[in-house]
Amino acid sequence: MKPIHYYLLGAGSWFLAYGIQVVVFAWLITIVLHESAKMVGFAQMAFMVPATLFMLMGGSLADQLGGRRVVIAGHIIASIAPLFLTLVIITNQLNSTTPRF
Fold first, then answer.
1. Residue 47, Cβ density class (10 Å: 0-12 exposed, 13-18 middle, ≥19 buried)
2. How many domains does the chain have?
């Protein structure tokens, strides 16, 4: 395979995984936890703010250390939260005990 094919495969798999994560996240907040629209907005904001900040830091690190190492480390670190959420769902520990604003 040509290098461009590896790039397209990696980018496509990332967008697929991210798309699934966004849909499952919204589904959990609205359908499973029955949260209000206000809480859904707070949850989505909390979901997006770290990504925005880490993209800026990741770009700076990639300029200094090389893109490949930063991408590999970023994907490994990014996989921790969905794996934790999967564990919480499997063990049936997901509940709506958050304070109402």
1. middle
2. 1
